[in-house]
Write a structure and sequence with these properties.
mainly alpha; two-stranded antiparallel sheet; 10 helices
């Protein structure tokens, strides 16, 4: 859903050279697979949008989208096992935000898949917030992010990828967050009526769970989280892309 700081590289001091090599090979394959998966999602989404408009996009990408995003759960496992230099809690929070959207919004609330908050038309094409804008932001962000990690594992990241990673978010991050919130809003009424992921009383375990309330609290976390992460990424961009200062003689 948002620019991520996870860095799935082997730790600098692994137990053995063999373990380091296996971890590196695995992570190269993992990142390459996700580059391919998100590229596939983007191609399917673009083709569906061109052929049938915004309402046709989710149906065309549902399975590959769920697979690609759910595969990110492995990044939490990588952090736990220590083969990636990533904080477990931060990684889990970042992954959970996307899972909430794909499983807690799009999967259980069909109205969220086709609703569009239109801004206008360009060349007869309706532009606005919805699944197409969501997938555009997610897809580009993930292809760039996993490409960055892939080349970093190899030792050198092309400047174009570095620039894209620390520049595209300026537009994609707020557009992606807005799209997520719009999809959640569009599907909320259906979620409440359907009772999906909720547990009503009475029951054998004497436990009640109201998933719509959990979802509201979850997305309210975007209010403080979005500006903090956005400012952090702007600082990172300045640090990474700023020209190196000449050393004093």
């Amino acid at each position: 859903r948002v620019p991520c700081t996870r860095d799935p590289r082997p730790r600098a001091t692994p137990p053995t050279t063999t373990n380091m090599s296996l971890a590196k090979t695995y992570l190269l394959a993992y990142n390459a697979s996700l580059i391919a998966a998100w590229s596939y999602v983007l191609v399917l989404a673009a083709a569906a949008f061109a052929a049938g408009g915004a309402g046709a996009v989710y149906a065309a990408v549902e399975i590959p989208l769920l697979a690609a995003q759910t595969a990110a759960c492995l990044e939490v496992v990588h952090a736990i096992l220590g083969i990636a230099r990533s904080p477990v809690l931060v990684t889990a929070m970042q992954v959970s935000s996307r899972l909430m959207v794909v499983w807690g919004v799009l999967y259980v609330s069909p109205p969220s898949r086709t609703a569009v908050l239109a801004f206008g038309e360009v060349g007869g094409v309706q532009l606005g917030l919805g699944v197409p804008s969501l997938l555009l932001c997610w897809g580009i962000t993930e292809v760039v992010r996993y490409s960055f990690y892939f080349f970093k594992l190899l030792g050198t990241v092309p400047h174009a990828i570095v620039w894209a990673r620390y520049t595209f978010f300026i537009v994609l991050y707020p557009l992606g967050v807005s799209s997520e919130l719009w999809c959640a809003y569009s599907g909320f009424e259906h979620l409440v009526k359907s009772g999906a992921f909720s547990v009503a009383m009475p029951n054998a375990y004497n436990i009640a769970l109201h998933f719509p309330s959990i979802q509201v609290m979850f997305f309210l976390g975007y209010v403080p989280g979005f500006p903090m992460l956005y400012q952090y990424m702007l600082k990172q961009r300045k640090s990474v892309l700023a020209p190196a200062k000449p050393k004093k003689a």
